[in-house]
């Protein structure tokens, strides 16, 4: 008689995410669409005109332009944990795709603390690369709080090599949008959504990439030490660290010159001096692993109040 192989008892209590691996070309149902100030992006609004750098999202955001996903290695440390991002572009990627991260409670309030860049062999890149970039001067309290006050400077490569190499391919994926990787998009009877949001006649593309959390934490602490030399060293990042995100594209790695997610860049009333929040570019705060925004303090207070009232009501009935 064959004996059945039983899972260890602890497996019954491990969070489901610990058993899932991030599939960079997987369906959008596996990803969290990040909530920006409004629409995830507008159509054909890039400053440097190129479909391959134009972030797109549907008007109602059922087909978002910006996503995140977290993988928990399951051992209560950062070892094995990964943070991934996905951008939707109007065509074959030809630009640098930057994700800016604002770690809450660190540095200047509302400022982007650092960037992660993914790019293919184009636009002054010598090779396909995922890299960390510092933001501008941290001595000015308004630095890095708006498009006009933000600079970028290369800090270190995370993955560098040809996009066909197994290593780069393990950490980045460039995929035409299809009914397989866009969970909302269907064809045939009852068709919904589209793989050509801007209607230009060419399919949209997903650019998806991931960073292991140990490397992300090391890079963050290193960049913080350079940008805030007199400040205390911040705590290590964890899956519960609160952060917000911005998405942008650029034709070269040292200028913010193409498209910002969440705002109509070429509109007559676009103000590059406006803050990330005012312009709708910044996402709501999330924890690194969170699938929904962190509630505002007032919401916490309201929920606590309801809890207290519930306890009081139960005691009175007794």
Short description:
With 318 residues, this protein is an alpha+beta fold. It has helices at residues 166-171, 213-227, 276-279, 297-317; strands spanning 32-33, 66-71, 82-89, 96-103, 114-119, 128-135, 152-161, 172-176, 205-212, 242-250, 259-260, 286-287.
Word description of this protein:
- The protein is built from 4 helices and 12 strands, in the order βββββββαββαββαβα.
- Helix content is 14%, strand content 23%.
- The chain is of the alpha+beta class.
- The model is unreliable at 1-19 and 299-315 (pLDDT under 50).
- The strands form 2 sheets. Strands 4, 5, 6, 7, 10, 11 and 12 form a 7-stranded antiparallel β-sheet that branches.
- The protein has one domain (9-317).
- β5 and β6 (128-135) form a beta hairpin.
- The termini are far apart.
- The protein has helices at 166-171, 213-227, 276-279, 297-317, and strands at residues 32-33, 66-71, 82-89, 96-103, 114-119, 128-135, 152-161, 172-176, 205-212, 242-250, 259-260, 286-287.
Proportion of helical residues: 10-25%
Q: Indicate the structural class.
A: alpha+beta
Structure annotation, total helices = 4
Query: What does the radius of gyration come to?
Result: 21 Å
- Kindly give the count of domains: 1
On the 0-100 scale, what is the average pLDDT?
A: 82
Feature tags:
318 residues; alpha+beta; seven-stranded antiparallel beta sheet; five-stranded antiparallel beta sheet; disordered N terminus
Blueprint of the fold:
Layout (H helix, E strand, L loop, with lengths): L31 E2 L32 E6 L10 E8 L6 E8 L10 E6 L8 E8 L16 E10 L4 H6 E5 L28 E8 H15 L14 E9 L8 E2 L15 H4 L6 E2 L9 H21 L1
Antiparallel strand pairs: 1-2, 2-3, 3-9, 4-5, 4-10, 5-6, 6-7, 8-9, 10-11, 10-12
